[in-house]
Amino acid sequence: MAEAIIQMRDVNKWYGKFHVLRNINLEVAPKERIVVCGPSGSGKSTLIRCLNRLEEHQQGSIIVDGTELTNDVKHVEAIRREVGMVFQHFNLFPHLTVLENLTLGPIWVLKKPKVEAEKEAMSYLERVRIPEQANKFPGQLSGGQQQRVAIARSLCMNPKVMLFDEPTSALDPEMVKEVLDVMVELAVDTGMTMICVTHEMGFARKVADRVIFMDQGEIIEENTPDAFFDNPQNERTKLFLSQILH
Amino acid sequence: MQNTIHSTPNMGLDAKIIIGLRDRFFSSIGNSILTVLSVWLLLMAIPALFDWGFTRASFYANNAQECRAAGGACWAFIGEKYRFILFGTYPFEQQWRPLVAMLLFVAMLILSTWRRLWNISLLALWTVGLATAAILMWGGIFGLTYVENSNWGGLPVTLLLATFAIALSFPIGVVLALGRRSKMPAIKSICVVYIELIRGVPLISLLFMASLMLPLFLPEGLTIDKLLRALIAMVLFAAAYVAETVRGGLQAIPKGQFEGAESLGLSYWQQMRLIILPQALKIVIPPLVGIFISMFKDTSLVVIIGIFDLTLAAKSALADANWQGFGVEAYVFISLIYFTFCFSMSRYSQALERRLSVGQKR
Amino acid sequence: MKAETSQPIVRSAPRPKLWNDPRFRSVLFQVLAIFCVGGAIWYLVSNTLHNLSVRNISTGFDFLRREAGFAIGESTIDYGPQDTYFRAISVGLLNTLRVAVVGIILATIFGTIIGIARLSSNWLVAKLATFYVETMRNVPLLLQLFFWYAIISEAMPGPRNALHPLPGVFISNRGIKLPALEGGALNWVLGGLFLAIVLIVLLANWAKKRQDQTGQIFPLGRYALAIFVLLPLLAWFVSGERLGLEMPVFKSFNFQGGITVTPEFGALLAGLVIYTSAFIAEVVRSGIQSVNQGQWEAAGSLGLRRPLILRLIVLPQALRVIIPPMTSQYLNITKNSSLAVAIGYPDIVSVVNTTLNQTGQAIEGIMMIMAAFLTVSLSISAFMNWYNKRIALVER
């Protein structure tokens, strides 16, 4: 088995007195697709936000692609270049066009020439099926289109790992499918390593290699999708599944 | 291997304090430099101020020389002059009357913050309160001697001007705001011209206009009291700013409210009175308090047309030949008074804003 | 199956009675309003004309050509008591613009620094900034002007014993004296400065083009600084002429030579800048805070560093929120400069005040003041509104 691309060992995090991550141990292999689910407040968003240092863990170690995640600014920058993130509320830059949103990272961080950056950006826009929106502003797009632009924006940095923090939770129901389709294509066509926090169980069944259930800061159960949904072991897992699969 | 230690709940108290201090003051080189600079600044300023204000200050002195001898602040000057600064040339023995009137004002202001009273009873409270204050100040009935308002001065005049200016400008401002949003071009133009004209000129020019030109505007024989002239100028000035603030509130009301009100068959004025204005005014209370604070500070400008407010009283106190050169002490004194009023009002407005926005979150 | 469309039956709606017709009522209402406002104005004007003639006050602007007969404390153009009222008022206007422009620049710089300081992670710095803002905002400006003026005129020593903190700098109750640059090389140095700015702009353009083509980022900051400092020095060297400082020298009762900052100008500038910078600090702070935390996070997860995030993402969005309230603060500085009349700085209000006291023509005087301020205010507003529209975020 290849060396794990993400290693989390005994990771603990507190918000003040509140223990939000308890002794997290997780290893992610390259090209693996992981879905993290759990009730709200279980710490699943915090877990993936720790992976690109949007949150700081207080105990334990996190190693991404061989680099340890510490306060060292150089380490953090190196890791952020390898890890892309898609947010629940898209967080597109409203004062820049779609194309400018996509080329910002490549030009200023990867130091690519503008023409090259734009060509790559257009190819990713075609991949997410909205090349005609390149010169529009985010405020002019629908929610589903904006999220697809956000995915393309992260892809433009050519990351090794993509993190998704509830990417469809803020969308109207009729737009969820178009974003999930793009994510499925990403998993199947490119073999990207993906860690996805989501409630979309259909997506998990279709694409995930592993499903992880978290509750109150701990990893309770992890298994392949079929085993997870058809044969949950833990009582809390069963309770959670009964609540969301109705 | 961590290279910075974070505070975790299972650490000892002393470790948490040290880490807390480090994070707040020394978290980086730049921060450390800033902290050192700030501390140095404070060390230079505070002992010197304390020395001037307390250690070397004279709290009791018989005349100016004695006071100046110590080299620090001369608070004896304030002790000597405070009644003049606060009450102006109001007759000395009757000064309990403006004092009571002032306390009445402050009490009414404090009561107005009590949200249970936010209905018609507030209007009744203010009418009764203002009438009582007027009787106290003017006198002439109930056995109180008559005191002409040219003898009024100091803090009561400041409070009076500010309160009346805002109270009277409020209905005018609301009407102007509604007029500016009107679809009738003539009404809209009149309102726009008025608002932009007033907002484009300084309050001083309006005060000059009121004190110099108002007598010319009126038919011969009819004169207006100087205090009233200043009040008119301030009301006209404040009305334009109130209008713009209320207009902002009206714009924040969703279109659906207007449509709902219309579909009930209400007339225009009924819609405004019962549905739109109550909501709009609630939204703009914080900025309205801000306007009140500004008007309170702007009352100091009536110095320039010779009306005896708190600032002019302080200035006049300085003109006493026996007590020369204590401008700093006098201005610090009245600054504290202004600051107390304005700061409390602005704190109230911030608290109110927080409470109102919580109510609007779903 | 095609549906048969029959001719719709048109029956004209019955015309409402005149009184209930909304169009009629609207017109009537407007006519009434115009009548009332116009009538009121006519009434006031006729009273005024009557009163003016009774008191033998002349009207019209002819007085502007008469000799002013009073001196003005400081002015940017030559002026003497034998000049016309018109020239005197122009001096006043220039003085107002001078203090307003310098005030706007300084207040913006101060205010921005303090606004950012309020958001600092350093607790001490943030608290000091908050203390400054709350104190300066809650004390009337006029009072602050009196205070500064009192400090300069009372607390400072006389010219004989003036404070001497730096060579050539003298602080006394007659103002602040600074050394003035003079000498033949001065024009060369100014030329060098101008050339430096042009060169920096050209360099910036070239750097941007190079980044577009090759992706390499040029460290413009340090090169620009070097050019800005070295080029004027080079110009001085090349000119071969001398550049000296004209030191103020104490003669008889006051200093001669050098640049003078009068107590009036100093107090007015200090008061305006300190007062307004507190408000500007709040505007800047709320502008930066208005930018969603998610924008910082998204830019950070792309790998951008903090200075770049500020420059490319946060400040452009913050500016959109900052500009409208900043405009009103600029207008406030301009209007508040009129308080100069209280401490004796000869701005336009002060000069016109003297004029109308001498000529008795209050109406013309006040109209001139209001016209001047209206013109400046409306131009600033118009420009800011245009700029605001230009940078507005594009939405559906």
What is this structure's SSE topology?
The complex is a heterotrimer of chains A (246), B (362) and C (396).
Chain A: E1 6-15, E2 18-28, E3 33-37, H1 44-51, E4 59-64, E5 67-68, H2 73-82, E6 83-86, H3 98-108, H4 114-127, H5 143-155, E7 161-165, H6 173-190, E8 193-197, H7 201-207, E9 210-215, E10 218-223, H8 225-230, H9 235-244
Parallel strand pairs in A: 3-8, 3-9, 6-7, 7-8
Antiparallel strand pairs in A: 1-2, 1-4, 4-5, 9-10
Helix pairs in contact in A: 3-4, 3-5, 4-5, 5-6
Chain B: H1 13-25, H2 29-55, H3 64-69, H4 75-87, H5 96-112, H6 120-138, H7 155-180, H8 185-200, H9 203-217, H10 226-252, H11 255-263, H12 268-298, H13 310-318, H14 327-360
Chain C: H1 22-54, H2 85-118, H3 123-137, H4 141-155, E1 170-172, E2 175-178, E3 180-182, H5 186-214, H6 220-239, E4 244-246, E5 249-251, E6 254-256, E7 259-261, H7 263-290, H8 293-301, H9 306-336, H10 348-359, H11 362-390
What does this structure look like?
The complex is a heterotrimer of chains A (246), B (362) and C (396). By secondary structure, chain A is of the alpha/beta class. Chain A has nine helices and ten strands. Chain A is 39% helix and 24% strand. Chain A has a six-stranded mixed sheet, sandwiched between helices. In chain A, strand 7 (161-165), helix 6 (173-190) and strand 8 (193-197) form a beta-alpha-beta unit. Chain A is globular, with a radius of gyration of 18 Å. Chain A starts with 5 loop residues before the first strand and ends with a helix. Chain B contains 14 helices and no strands. The longest helix of chain B has 34 residues, at 327-360. Chain C has eleven helices and seven strands. Chain C has a domain at 85-157 and 261-391: MetI-like (MetI-like fold), CATH 1.10.3720.10. By secondary structure, chain C is mostly helical. Chain C is extended, with a radius of gyration of 30 Å. Classes of the chains: A alpha/beta (246), B mainly alpha (362), C mainly alpha (396). The interface between B and C is large, with 58 and 56 residues.
